[in-house]
Design goal:
It holds the Pfam family Phage_HCP. With about 110 residues, the protein is mainly β. It has no helices and six strands.
């Protein structure tokens, strides 16, 4: 297997819950670091949203493996940022038996 071409620089972000002072909370995204990755679009669908149809694209994002427990290892619920584009991580798996590469399965979402 040829190594992937890691030519996209992504920011890894983690959601932190912060109290809003009224008994509720809001999500603040904390920057964890930069990772180089290879990205490939996998599928796209159009679905009905509240006001109009929206497009949902799933991505396969490959990067160098990071040990389990390391803060730099992506996890479901975190997200990648590429400028104004956001990719919510749904699953993470080792790509090869040697454990050199990780594959993250993510959905692109619009920046709110």
């Amino acid at each position: 297997m040829a190594p992937p071409v890691l030519n996209v620089r992504l920011a890894l972000e983690h959601p932190d819950r912060e109290g809003d002072g009224l008994g509720g909370y809001r999500i603040e995204w904390r920057h964890l670091g930069w990772l180089w990755a290879a990205m490939a679009a996998r599928s796209g669908v159009q679905r009905q949203a509240e006001v109009s149809a929206e497009s949902v694209v799933t991505w396969q994002i490959t990067l160098r493996a990071v040990p389990v427990g390391d803060v730099r290892r992506p996890a479901p619920g975190q997200r990648f940022r590429l400028d104004q584009r956001l990719f919510v991580i749904e699953a993470v798996a080792e790509q090869d038996r040697a454990g050199r590469w990780l594959t993250c399965f993510a959905k692109e979402e619009e920046l709110a």
